[in-house]
Specification:
With 340 residues, this protein is an alpha/beta fold. 32% of the residues lie in helices and 27% in strands. The strands form four sheets. It has a seven-stranded mixed sheet with strand order 11-10-9-12-13-14-17, with helices on both faces. A six-stranded parallel sheet has the order 2-1-5-6-7-8, with helices on both faces. Strands 3-4 form a two-stranded antiparallel sheet. Helix 1 (12-22) crosses helix 8 (317-329) and helix 2 (68-83) packs parallel to helix 3.
Amino acid sequence: MDSIIFALDGRDDLANEIIEELSNTQMSQDILKGNINTEQFSDGEVCADYKTSVRGKRIYLISSPNTAEKVLQLNFAIDAAKRAGAREIVPIIPYFPYARQDKKDQARGPIGAKVMAEMIQNRGATSIITFDLHADQIQGFFNIPVMHMEGKFLFDRYIFDLYRDYCGDNIVLCAPDAGAAKRVKGFRDQLKHRWDIDLPIVMIDKTRKEANKVYSMVIIGEVRANDVIIIDDMCHTGGTLVKAAQELKHAGAKSVRSIVTHGVLSGPALNRVYDAIDEDIITDFVCSDSLPIEGEVFIEQGVFVLANNFITQISTAKQIVKGIVATEQGTSVDHLKTMV
């Protein structure tokens, strides 16, 4: 046994899926799940200590550090592993924190994503595996290898199944803003390469007056009588998504679905998504499990609906396993990404 997987911040669910997927590979006997103790004390401080020996091992730390406490916990786990003699330390970060702060938006503002990269690297990480970064240049914030797993390899089968079983050539891929256009083109190229289907793209030109608030939207392209799929890397409050879906419906779209890699879903997002589905503004909301989807929506008369009853989650485990296998075997991950 040369490698061990540890789950931080409650990601045992994903770690168990990864172990199960690894059982179908040649790595099944070489990688086991280890035990790490993480806790938060009454004064708010956090700690992490290993109950499984890591000396001379390559260790993988699964974490979705979307809070300050989880960021600290990940850094402490890296530090503890280094001090305990781990040979390699590979954080697996399906949701990279502060990814939207990839540049200076204000004259005297920070670059949050670079701060996160430096923290992880300087603590002792030897490489990282992460998923669908908000901006590709974040990879350049590291001076260690970054294995970037893209959403197009995760969601292409969902789109193909939709094409084959329901919508056919009526599907139109939609970039919700100019920044998402490159990502949506990547989806189109992946669908063409893997499934031999060629889908058109439309784009929404949106104007903001402040963060998380859209002032106006203009649809560039034809959506009338088509089944539109909005593709983005993340959904925070859901306001922009619902407004975009409404605009597409007003423009004559037959249906609107949403694919986002990271379902952050903060604040009123769950209620907005549920209401949009209930009112047939959105047909389906699909995201990965890069963040656990928790919470519920109160309907009426004491009735609650759990989020996982109206949100479709697709596991990142298979794609992460391809990154682990490439690391273990010292091979290229490119050909593994496209494998079923």
